Amino acid sequence: MAFDYEYSPSRDRGSCSTIIVGKDASATGYVLVAHNEDDYDCVIQVHKVPRIRHKPGETIRFADAKGVIPQVEETYAYQWSDFRCEGGISFADCFVNEWGVAVVSNACRPSRIGEEKPEDMGIGYGLRRLVAERARSAREAVEIAGALIEEFGYTSGRSYQFCDKNEAWVFQIPTGRRYVAKRIPDDHVYMIPNNYTIHEVDFADAEHKNCYFSKDLVEYAMKNGWYQPAVPGDYSDFDFARAYQDGPDKVHNLIRARQTWPMLLGERPEEWRPFSRKAPRKYTVAELRRLLSSHFEGTEDDYNNGYERNPHIDRDPCPLCNAMTAESSVIEFAEEPAMTCIWRAAPKPCISPYVPWYLGAKRAPKGYQWLPVTVSQDTHFAPGEEELHIDVSKAFWAFRVLQYFTEFDYKGTHETIRKSADELEAAWDAEQPAFREKCRSLLKEAPELAEELLSAYTEAQAQKAWDWAWKMVEQLGEERILKNSSTRYLPPENV
């Protein structure tokens, strides 16, 4: 089937985008993960959660599902992007744990539903957090997630991406107790815009070198009338995406796929929802940062008319950087997990700099979190109303206020913002080699000093970005005042 098959008219907005580069296609020699998390009306704090030892018999239950889940003896440390909104949100938070295992996700709706109903399933939000707390590798993340799904059942339809420095796995789940996981080849690049992308399933891969799947994946699809083999007993024509997604892709998902793949490959795939493609070149962190900032400028899906219209207005098409984008990140894995760098931009990457946050930092920068970890975990689905109001003591609001300045004059503001953000990013890029060499030497000789250096550096850059945002607000405000004043008070014949 042609890549540009018939659109669905639905405007249901589910807009996260993920790009993954296998280690052999990466300029760094390690896996790269680029992710835009798209959700409305969220405020975001970032935590460094420590290791926690748990008592025998301890259990955990998450507010959005029924499962009562046994705790493990000890949970691992991780960085956590905590998305908070009225009523809570189940499927937004991103994690990178102390072993260098990253968890990001994309909605895959609508997922077909059999007799197992979402309200009867035992796990939703908790899956991502439990994987972050328990997995030492991307492969182990797949195994942990699969066991949880089979025991408790999943409440939604979703694609998780579990990645470490060497391997990247795509774990796709329909509502219920079934899943399929596929490894991205090391020399491939992967892109998902919020729909199922796993097609062929290697049922002969008993050793799970590249594939995991539920034992009754095919039987359940046949039972519900979603798939029938052309030849009885021969499942070689089974296509997971076709069987388990209910209906055609949403228009915005299709548009993001058809514009992003050419940027990655130099050509448009003719396949139906390609899973991954062999990379034609090596990809860099800087390139992925720019891709995540794209509004598809200069293409048939660029509706901005030279930025006469704000690209963040909620309308089709839905580019990579869009009305819903709340946080953007590029995860640059390293040999030593502590040296993994999470480049963060929020809320919109086109008008925010990507700031280097190191995984080895032992604390979150001041102002980027406002609640203790345990309180944030307990109130994730019931944040206080005051959290959703502007508060200048919280770094998040500096970047959100800067975004407000672009809402009605994107054309007149974004170039000033982007030029300054590019200068910040260039300075950070230039200083990374020497900084990393120093940290690596300390990791061998004095790990505690290395941890403190990574913490202090991450704090300093996060504070620099916060100060930058308010400086840009002040500069743009002064420019608007001068512009309006010079217009308002000129004699009529000169206006």
Automatic annotation (TrEMBL):
Pfam families in UniProt: Peptidase_C69
Signal sequence range: none
Keyword set, alphabetical order: Dipeptidase, Hydrolase, Protease
Presence of keyword Hydrolase: yes
Gene3D superfamilies: Penicillin V Acylase, Chain A (3.60.60.10)
InterPro entries according to UniProt: Peptidase_C69
E.C. no: 3.4.-.-
Protein's name in the database: Dipeptidase
Family note: Belongs to the peptidase C69 family.
Domain of life of the source: Bacteria
Catalytic activity: an L-aminoacyl-L-amino acid + H2O = 2 an L-alpha-amino acid
Enzyme class: hydrolase
